[in-house]
Amino acid sequence: MTAQTETFPVTSWSLPRLFHRIRANNDRLTAAHEATRQHLALTERDLSDVCLSRDHVVGIPRYQPELPFFMQHNFLERRN
């Protein structure tokens, strides 16, 4: 007994579509690297001049009351 299988053309694997997906991923990576570079270019002095902390810039506070203590930002650092 042999199983008969049908082969369907895979349109998502076409060469132009593959190049488009690679370029889109590359564009996202480039944007992420640029954002990281800009973020790291800020110094604590720049932030203190405008009365902001790094938490405000990133948008994620270091202390999040809805999370348990072991999931807080620097839990392992404080234990050592």
**Element string (H = helix, E = strand):** HHHH
Q: Give the CA-based shape.
A: elongated
- Counted by DSSP, the helix tally is 4
Question: Portion of residues in helices?
Answer: 40-55%
Number of E-type strands: 0
Task: Give me the secondary-structure category.
Answer: mainly alpha
Radius of gyration: 24 Å
Total domains:
1
End-to-end distance: 65 Å
Largest sheet: none
Task: Give the amount of beta strand, in percent.
Answer: under 5%
What is the average per-residue confidence, as pLDDT, rounded to a whole number?
A: 76
Uncertain spans:
none
Detail the topology: elements first, then pairings.
Blueprint: H1 15-41, H2 44-49, H3 54-58, H4 75-79
Could you explain the architecture of this structure?
The protein has helices spanning 15-41, 44-49, 54-58, 75-79. It is built from four helices and no strands. It is elongated, with a radius of gyration of 24 Å. The protein is mainly alpha-helical and 80 residues long. The mean pLDDT is 76. The longest helix has 27 residues, at 15-41. It has one domain.
Supply the key terms:
single chain, 80 residues, mainly alpha
Short précis:
The protein has 4 helices and no strands. By secondary structure, it is mainly α.
